[in-house]
Amino acid sequence: MLALAIMANFAVILVKAQETAPDLKVDVNTDGGMAGGDWMSNPLVWVIGALVLIVIIALVARGNSNK
User: Fold this and answer.
1) Which UniProt keywords apply (predicted)?
2) Distances (CA, A) of 5 to 1, 14, 16, 18, 48
3) Among the residues of 1-67, which ranges form H helices?
4) Residue 33, exposed/middle/buried by CB under 10 A (0-12, 13-18, 19+)?
5) pTM of the full structure
6) 6-61: per-residue pLDDT in tens?
């Protein structure tokens, strides 16, 4: 039990030894994701994609019950 406690403390020391000063250079993107051509970051794309997926799942789950 003592050896396990010592190894746990050693792991904490190793993790804390790797911490460096925080990088305070922050790049804020205010173009809404449209100017750079990064269309996947646009929330409207995700909403429309989710709606299409729900409609497809509903159609498949409904099946073809015509006799």
Assistant:
1) Membrane, Transmembrane, Transmembrane helix
2) 6, 14, 17, 21, 52
3) 2-17, 43-62
4) middle
5) 0.42
6) 999 988 888 876 666 666 787 776 665 555 567 777 889 999 999 999 999 999 98
